[in-house]
Fold these 3 entries.
Entry 1:
Amino acid sequence: LSAGTVDTDTGVWTVEAADIDELAITPVELDATDINLVLTLNSQEIDPDTAVVTTSTSTINKTVYIDPIADAATLTTVDTTGVENNPIALDITTAVVDLDGSETINKVVISDVPESATLSAGIKNIDGSWTLQADELTDLTFTAIGENTDITLTVTAHVKDVDPDSGIVSETATSDVLVVSLADGLDGPDS
């Protein structure tokens, strides 16, 4: 909370009345779980004639709804070498970093793939890029036919975060490059 003091043993916050109007709550980073609060309001009234203090307490339940914001995934690529016309293993890993389980890697796009090259998984798009699911990165290979130069691939991991209560969707993407250094494969594949 933006004001008040917390009892670290119970997690209960005490906030003075003067701070209520500007009170704000900051959710846990990487967690869009809604926050359920129990608000206990204590008030005192002093009788001006008798000076008797009357205390009253009321409790209300409030939920702070947290809209999701997709967090950038971790994305690691490792440059590799191989021989043209032969499958070359690509080392690409990606994962979500959120804590509440609402995020997924909804696709991985590999772009700047030469027209003559293929991947062992995924779907080739009209623009020449390839779209894969995260589980297709395991044992992924790249084969370049008739290429014997360095090829720089761009890998982009797309994260989607969906709020289970409101259905609000947030998306983001993270990119990295992967260089494939190719040597001439004079005798073709499997030679």
Entry 2:
Amino acid sequence: LGDCLSNAAPIQVYTIWQVSWAFICGLIALLVESMSVQEVRANVMAEISSEGELTIESLLTAFCDAMIRVSHDLLITQDAPKLSALLLRQPLGGNLQGSSLLDLVHEEDRHNLAMHLRGTTCNHLAKSMSVRLLDGRGSDVKVQLYHTCCADVEGTPRYLVGICEHGYAWDSAWENGSPGGLDEALHRSFD
């Protein structure tokens, strides 16, 4: 290319350089635009996902006794004053942030809960599970967990968990060895 340019007229060399720079600038502009479109698409998807999470969080907060956010390694990621109150843990204002959810669960239920949560795929239907939590005195608190998995920006799963304490109908079903038979116990309690 150097030999060709040295024999060419200065106007031709200038034209070749101009065309080359125009091509390079056009290529850069195309790459920047492509990256911008991808960034906008990612931002829109994140916003839609965030709105969905807020809706789920609002529903769990409205219908459950407590709602918590749990990381992929099953740590409570935000303060949980309602869960603290439900479990009679001091201070009642919360301070469960950073605690392991599994530390609050009865030893016999820990493995099943961990497997159940980690088996939940993100952006699919919500699931539920009956477990026993431990209150501040170490006594069992029978609860139903309603949870869903959401992925963060990096794709790491995290969980939104609603916690409902069970009443008399649940206790009857649990004592009869049929925690899954809650519907039957509820129907019997209304007869």
Entry 3:
Amino acid sequence: CPDLDLDGFTTSEGDCDDNNADVHPGADEICNGVDDDCDGTTDEPVLLEGLVAYYPFSGNTNDESGLGNHAVSFNATLTTDRYGNANNAYVFNGSNSWIEAPDNVSFHTSSFSVGAWVSYDAIPSSIQVLLAKSFLSTSWESNGIFYLYGAVNTIVSDGTNGFYFPATAPAAGDWFHILEVFDNETDLLKI
């Protein structure tokens, strides 16, 4: 049998989708509705400890962590994801659309990770928030990843001081993963 997707595995060697090089025995299982590692189970739980929300955008903005932190779409429209699956991603109009998770005590933590797969059609002409965690206390505090001036940037603010970390942005049309890991106890930020 030939290896149609050139991933090093044929169907006789256990490749359950020989048209997708990302799917084969031993591949990392990710939450995408696909049996990536060909073990007969789709989307095995990878991270549960400390998980407070999981939004796979499977036709809605429901939290699939089981904790009920459902988000709400404001003028965002369902679209095709990076794998070509219909209604598994959202497109934003660049001016008045977003997805917001209502405040919940489970989000009140000084250390967190937040990530998303992102693609954009054109270079934005204004600041665009890609991911943000913010809340009101005695002052406005925010941690987030923004698209600003032709680059993807991380901005961290405690309401008084702000820190800005620029990074080169991928080309328009490319999908890229953004992840922010913040540990307030050690003042560690990883992007």
